[in-house]
Please model this.
Amino acid sequence: MSMPDINNLSWNELKYKYIPETRDQRIILLSIFFSLLIVIILPIGSILVFSFADSFPITDGEFGFTLRHYTYLFENLSLLYEITLNSFIYAAGATFLAITVGTFAAFFTVKYLNDSMWVQLLMLIPYGIPSVAALVGWVILLGDVGVLTEAVIAVFNLSSSPWDIRSIWGMIFVEGVHTAPIAFLLMFPAIRNIPAAMDEASFTAGANRIRTFRQIILPVVWPSVLSTLLFLFVRTMATVTTPAVLGVPERIFTFGTAIPYIFLSGADLSYSKALSFSVFMIAITTVFILYYLKAQSAEDQFTTVLGAGRSEPRRYDSTILKQGLGITFVGAYLVIAGLLPFGAILWDSLVPGIMMSTDLSQFSLQNYVALFAGNAQGTFAWRRALWNTILVGVIVPTTGMLICMLIAYANQIIDIAFSKTFVFVASVPLAIPGIARSMGFLSVFIQTPIYGTWFILFIAYHGVALPIGMRYASPALTRIGSENVEVSLASGAGLIRSFRSILLPLISKDFIAGWMHTYVTVIRNVSIPILLYTAGSEVIAIELLTVLRAGYANTASTMAVIITLLSILPHIILQYWRVSGGLRGR
Model:
C-alpha cells in the first residue's frame, strides 16, 4: 500500500488534518500526548538508551556509549541460558495447566450447563485472590512442614514429603491453578460463539460428541486457543511473585526475578546490567506478542466469517450424572484454587503462633490488632502501606480510564490528529514485561525529586492501567456510535463538554467495568513497585512479599487476608455484573 503524498495536499487540508483548530482540540491532544509520553514513551525509550550508557545513574552529565553490559550478558551464557530455560519451562507448564482447566470448564459450562451464571462466578472467584496472598496459603498447606504435607506423611507413613513446593514444579502448579480463570474467561466466548449448525451437521453425518469436539469444535476455536496460549505464556514468563517466593530461595531464577534478585541485589548491584537484561527480555517477549497479535487477528477474522453473536450455541442433552460431573469439576477447582489457600491464611491469621491449630480456644484477633497497631513481626509501615495501596487503587483506575476514554474519543468520534498512533502506543505495554517497565521508570526518575515518593508509583501503575482501559474504551465507543456527540456539537457544546456531559454517562457501565478490572490489577501488582518503592511509598503487595520471604507466617497470613478482601470484593461485583447481563458483549 502506497503512503499518502502530503505534497499533493493543500495547506488548508494539512492544517485541518494535523493542526488543532479549537481550544478543546488542543487540550485533548496535549493531554493525551503528555500522558503517553510520561507513562509509556519515556520509560520504554530509556530502557534502550541507558542500556548503552557507560555507567548508570549518570552523575557527571556525560553519556558514555558502551556495549560492555551486553558483552557481560553474553559472556555469562550459562546464567542467561539457565534463566531463559527456567522461564520457558515455568511459563509453558503453568500455561498448559491453566488452559487445560480453563478450556474444559468453559466447554462444559456452555454445552452441558447452559452458561450457568453461578458456575462462571465460581470459576472466576479464585482469580480475585492476589497471587501473593494465595502463595501464603500454599506455603502453609504444602510447605516442608505444611498442614497437608504433615497429614500425608502421617497417613502413608512416609519418611519425607512426597513433593517440594519450592521447586519449578511447585511454581508451575501454583501459577497454573491461579491463572486458569483467565483461560476460562478468554475461551468461554470463543466456545459459546460456535453456531449450533456446525454441531448439528457433524451429528447428522454420524459423528459422536468426542469426534465432533476433535474434528469440528477444536479446529474452529484453535485461533482462540493459540492466542490464549501466547497471551498466558508471555504473561507468566515475567511474573515476579510465584518465582520470588518459591523459586528464589532454591536459586531458581526466571525473567521476573533475575532483575531484582540478581542484578539489583547485594554488593554487585548494577543498574546498567539490569537495563541490558531488560532489553534482552523485551526482545524475547516481543516475538511472542507479535505471534499473539497475529493469532488474535486470525481469531477476529474467523469469528466474523462464522457470524458470531447471530446464532446460539448447540446445547448438548445432559443427564444429571453428567451435570454432576461438571459441577464437581468446577467445585473441586474452586476448593483447590480458592478455598484451600484462602482458608489456610484465614485460619492461620486467627491462631497466633500456632500454625493451623484445631484448638478453638486459641482463636483471636491478636494478629490483626498487632498489625494495625504497628507491632506485627516483620513489618514497620503497615498503615502507610495500606493507605498507599488504597490511594493508588482508587486514583489510578480513575485517571487511567479517563485517559483511555479520551484516546478512544479522539480516535473514533472526533478523529483528532495522530489518534490512531495514540491507540497503538497505549497498547504497547502489553509487549513489555512489568519488571522491565519498572526498570524503565527507575531509569527515568531515579535522579528526580519524585523518586522514592508515592507519585512515582502513581505514574508507573498507569503503564498497567492503559492497556486494560483500552480493551474497554474502544468497544464502548464503537457500540454507542458518534451520533449523540455529533448532536451535542451541532447544538453548540464544545468537545470537552460533550465528552463530559454526553459521552461519559452513555459509557458509564463500561467505564466502571474497566475501573474495577484495573483496580484489581493495581492492588495485586508486584512487578511495578518492587523496584520503585522506598520508605514512605510502600504498598501492601510488597510488604506482604517481604514479610513472607522473611518467614513471619502469622503476619503474612493476616496481611494476605486483608489484601484478598480488598481485591476480591470489586472483582466479584464486576463478574456478577458481567454474567448477569449488565455488561453485554464483554
The chain has a mean pLDDT of 80. Residues 81-259+315-381+538-586 form a domain with the MetI-like fold fold (CATH 1.10.3720.10).
